[in-house]
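Researcher: Please predict.
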Amino acid sequence: MKRVVVSQRVDNYPKRNESRDALDQELISFLLVAGFLPVPIPNVLHKVMPNGHREYEIVDEWLSQVKPSALILSGGNDIGESSLRDSTEERMLEYAKRQRLPVLGICRGMQMIAHLAGAKLHRVEGHVRTTHQIAGEVKAEVNSFHTFSIDDCPQGYRVLAISEDGEIEAIRHRSLPWEGWMWHPERNKHFDSRDLTQISELFSEESS
């Protein structure tokens, strides 16, 4: 099975004085059904220098040791909520770009991809715990669990799908095998065959 490295959200538990990495078990199940071996990446692969600055070169070393075939930026957390996660995902994308690896950004993951490409985010209404139709290259009814959306398609990408109220729901890089989906394929009661086919095709691609 091809290894797929998956980023994790950060959950804080002040009463226990703990911060924990977390990943929905259903995302693991989704990837296994799609034929991939999920490998969660920790958010603490860094060194704290004497001046307090964090260096994240260990992320590159970790990824080089794991040798993934693709990367996923998962959902959960808003951008800016956890600097550790933000930095980890930024290094993941830098690594994927150098290695020409496929990437899928799910919900917040798509926002991070767009954000790092220069896009801005705005709050949206009516996109939490609901479903809606999307149209474009991808036509489907999808779930929705997000309070932010991207303003415009970032440079170097094209729009794959738009919601009924005009929000960008999916994007695709013009030269790299990178996609972003605002829906959560793992949160459907039954995994959608379209999502399984789409991720399988994406993760079998090579950069142009």
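Model: Residues 83-99 form the longest helix (17 residues).
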